[in-house]
Amino acid sequence: MATDTAAREGLIDALRDLGVAQAERNAFEMRLGAADGRISELVADNARLRRRAAEAAQDSTAARGELAVALAQLSSAMEEGRQKGAADAAAEASQLTQATMKKVRDLAAARRENAKLKATIDRLTASLDEASTARQRGWRRELARS
């Protein structure tokens, strides 16, 4: 009987150990299931993040393209502004040149007119001098006759 009791106690211990092992296994499987669930969540998160990264890369590429277009338009507008500014400056310079040339022509005409007037004044002065001299001679003659 002692062997039966020892066998029973061994069996009870073995069943208890089996129960503990079964409980540990169940706990491990629960942790494993939770870890599998977390891994699935992480895989899904990773896929979402990859999609968002791909979308962000596309958005970035599109933004770079839009920026390049905007920069090209700005450069074109600046060049047009420079050319227009240069054209406006050239037109203004042309107008100023024409106005200056007109003033030069007017000045030359005024100088010619002044030269003519001076020549006329000189002739009139010479004529006046001659007349004055002739008159003085005439007076002298008259005085000499009287």
List keywords for this structure.
coiled coil, 146 residues, mainly alpha
What does this structure look like?
Helices cover 99% and strands 0% of the residues. With 146 residues, the protein is mainly α. The protein is rod-shaped.
Terminal-residue CA separation: 205 Å
Radius of gyration from the CA trace? 60 Å
**Helix-strand topology string:** H
- β content, as a range? under 5%
Largest sheet report: none
Structural class of the helices, strands and pairings?
mainly alpha
Number of helices: 1
Mean pLDDT: 84
Coiled coil: 107-134
Keywords: Coiled coil
Task: Give the helices and strands, then pairings.
Elements: H1 2-145
Quick description:
This protein is mainly α. Helices cover 99% and strands 0% of the residues.
